[in-house]
C-alpha cells in the first residue's frame, strides 16, 4: 500500500504551532508528548487515510490519543492528503 503525501494548510500549521507553544509554556514533557502523538497520528493518516471517520463529504477526522485534538483532513485524487485543521476536540 503506498504512503500518501501529507500537505499542511497554513491554518493547520498555525493551529499546531499555537498549541505546541501553549504546551511548552506549561510543561516541557507535555510538549514533547504532544509532538509525538501528532506525528504518530499523521503517520497513520499517511499510511491509510481511508481508515478514519468520514465526517462530511471529502473530510475525514482523526482523533489523537491522550490529547483532546482532532486532525481534519481530506484526500485528493492521487496520493495526497491535505491536513486542514489540527484543533482541540
Quick overview of this protein structure:
By secondary structure, the protein is α+β, with helices and mostly antiparallel strands. The protein is built from 2 helices and 5 strands, in the order βααββββ. The radius of gyration is 13 Å and the shape is elongated.
Any key phrases for this structure?
single chain, 89 residues, alpha+beta, YaeB-like fold, five-stranded mixed beta sheet, 42% helix, elongated
Would you give an account of this structure?
- The chain is α+β, with helices and mostly antiparallel strands.
- It has helices at 10-26, 28-47, and strands at residues 5-8, 53-56, 59-63, 69-76, 80-88.
- The protein has a single domain (5-88), classed as 2-Layer Sandwich (YaeB-like fold), CATH 3.30.2310.
- Helix 1 (10-26) runs antiparallel to helix 2 (28-47).
- The radius of gyration is 13 Å and the shape is elongated.
- It starts with a strand and ends with a strand.
N-to-C span: 30 Å
What is the arithmetic mean of pLDDT?
93
Radius of gyration: 13 Å
How many helical elements? 2
Helical fraction equals 40-55%
Tally the structural domains: 1
CATH topology: YaeB-like fold
Main sheet properties: 5 strands, mixed
Report the CATH C-level class: Alpha Beta
Strand segment count:
5
Inertia-based shape: elongated
What's the architecture, going by CATH?
2-Layer Sandwich
Query: Low-confidence segments, ≥5 residues, pLDDT <50?
Result: none
CATH level-four homologous superfamily name: RelE-like
